[in-house]
Design a protein that fits this description.
Largest sheet of chain B: none
Shape of chain B: globular
Structural class of chain B: mainly alpha
Distance between the termini of chain A: 22 Å
Structural class of chain A: alpha+beta
Number of domains of chain A: 2
Radius of gyration of chain A: 25 Å
Helix content of chain A: 25-40%
Radius of gyration of chain B: 24 Å
Largest interface: A-B, 80 and 78 residues
Oligomer: heterodimer
Strand order of the largest sheet of chain A: 2-3-1-4
Distance between the termini of chain B: 20 Å
Shape of chain A: rod-shaped
Amino acid sequence: MSDLSVHSPMANAPIPENPIYGLMAEFDSAQELLDAAHKTHEAGYHKLDAYSPFPIEGLAEAIGFHKNRVALVVLIGALVGGISAFAFQYWVAVITYPTNIGGRPYFSWPSFIIVTFELTILFGGISSAVGMIALNGLPMPYHPVFNVAEFAKASENKFFLVVESADPKYDPAATRSFLNGLAPRMIAEVPS
Amino acid sequence: MATNTQVPVDDRRVPVIAPGHTFSTITEKISNIVLTRPISLGWILGFLIVFGMMNMLMLALGYLFIKGTGIWGINIPIGWGFAIVNFVWWIGIGHAGTLISAILALLRQTWRNSINRFAEAMTLFAVACAGIFPLAHTGRPWLAYWLFPYPNTMRYWPNFRSPLVWDVFAVSTYLTISLVFWFVGLIPDLATLRDRAEKPWLQRTYGLLAMGWRGSAKHWHRYETAYLLLAGLATPLVLSVHTVVSFDFAVGIVPGWHTTIFPPYFVAGAIYSGFAMVLCLAIPIRAIYKLEDFITMRHLENSAKVMLATGLIVAYGYGMEAFMGWYSGNQFDSFLLWNRLHGPYRFFYAALLASNIFIPQVLWLKKFRVSTGWLWIISFVVLCGMWLERFIIIVVSLSRDFLTSSWGQYYPTKWDWMTFFGTIGLFLTGMWLFVRVLPMISIFELRTLLPESHAHEATEVKQ
C-alpha cells in the first residue's frame, strides 16, 4: 500500500547542505496535533508545518500562519473580469461596431450588465482556484515529507507535525527530545 | 469556533452519517469502490446499454450534420422545438449540483457533504448535454465559434444587447465554474487515492491530478478561503444562469413568454428538476454501492423537502401565468390560457399539471418521503413534468401566436427522439464512468462530520 516510488526525490535535484529536511512527529488525533502545534510554536520554533487529512480549525493559526492572500487575488481577478467585460462591450457597441438595434442608444448600458456579471464571476472563480493552487506552491509532486513511509496516512487518519531543519532553533538532539515530550506516536527524520 | 459546525445532536432525526464510523472506515469504504471493487457483470451490461444510447446520439448528430436541421420536426412558426426544450431541461437539471455545493455550503448544511460530489458531476454532464442542442440547432455547428467575440476578417462583433449572446456567456461561465469547483473539491481526495492506490500507473495518475497535495495546515487555510469564495461566487451564478435562459423567452414578445415572472419561476423549476435527478441517481447508487451509511434517509428526505418547496414556487408560477392571462384583459394572453387548456396540446398541459403540481404533493406525507421506491417514482414523474413544462412553454406558445394565418403544429421526428434519448445516454455514460474512477462522495468532507475531527483550543496550552 505504501509504495512511495511516486514520491522519491528527483535524481537531478540540487543536494542541499543539510540532507535532513526536518523532524516529523506523528499523532493520533486532531486534538493532539493542535495541542502539539501550539506548544511547538510557543517553544520558539517558527519553521514548522502541520499535516492533517482534513482542515482543522485553528491549526494554521497555531503554527503562526494567520492571513492568506487568496481573497485579495479573487478580488483583483473579479475586478479585472468585470471592468474589462464592460469596457469591451462599450468599445464594441459604441466605438468599433455601432449598430442601430430597435432605435436604442449605442451606449445602452443595462444590456451590458449580464455579460459584465458573468465575466466577473468567471474571472473571480478561476482566480480563486488558480490563486489557491499557486500560493500553495502546487503542483509540487515531490516534497521531502513524502519520503517518510508513514506519511501516506496523512491523507487518511493520521496527523503530523514537522519542524524544519532550517529553523534557527533546530538542533537534532534537542528538537527530538522536545518533540518526544509531546507524546507522539513516533518520530522520524525527514530526509530531504 | 468549532462548536457551530458540530454535527447536530437532535435525536429525532436520522444522522447525516451512520454511527460507528472512523476516519479509516470512511476512507476505505469510499476509495475502495474506485480502487479495489471488481467490475461487475451488471456494471458492464448497464454500460453497454448507456454507451449504445450515446452512440445513437452520435448517429443522429452525424446525420444532422450531413442533411441539416430539416431532419428535425421544427418548422415555421415552431422554429425552436425539441432542441431548445431539451437545452432548457438539461441546464435546469444541472442546477441542483451547484445549489448543493455552493448555496448549502454557505448555509452550513452538513448534509450536503455526502451528496455534493456526485451532484456536481451530474451538473457537468447535464450542462455538456445541454450545450449540444443550441450548437446543433445553429444548423452549421462548425461555425458556432461565431457566437464568441473574436477579431475576424468580416470586422463583425456580436450584438451585446441580445439575450442569445448573454446566454452564451452565462452557460459557458456556468460550465467553467462548475468544473473548477468540482476539481478544487476533488484535490484532497485525489491525494487520498494516490496514497492508497497500489498499482503504479494509478499512483501516477492520481498523483498527477492531486498535484502534490499533502494536507499542510497552511494549504488547508488557503484551500478553505478559496472554497468559500468559490461558493460565494457560484451562488449568484447558479441563480443567474436560468434567469438568463429565461430572458431568451421573456425579452421576446410571444404570448406566454413576455412575462416578468419568468426568471424566478425558471430558477425554481431548475432546482426542482435538479433535485429530482439527484434523487433518481442517489437512490439506486446508494443501494448498489451500499452507501446507506453516508447517504442516509436524512439526505433523501431533505432533498424531497427541497423538491416540495421549489415545486410550490413552480405551482405559483403556473397560477400567476393563468391569473395574468385572465386579469390582463389582453386577448392574446387569455387565448394562450384557453389554448393550453383546450387546444391541440391540452393532454400535455394536463399531464404537466398532474406531474409537476398534483402528484408531488404526496411529499407532504412522511410516509412517501422515507420510502425510497416512492421517492424514486415521484422524482421520475417530476423530471417528466419539467420536460413537459419546457415543451408547453415553447411549442404551445409558438404554434399559435398573433396571426391565425401563421399558426402551425409541431411533430418531433425520429431524429428528434434519437437526439434526446442519445443525450440521456451521454449523461448516463458519464455518470457510469465517474462512479468507478473518482470518489463519488467527498471523503475529506465526510471526515469533518465525525465528532473527533473537532479540536478545541486548550486553555492550559496558552499559559
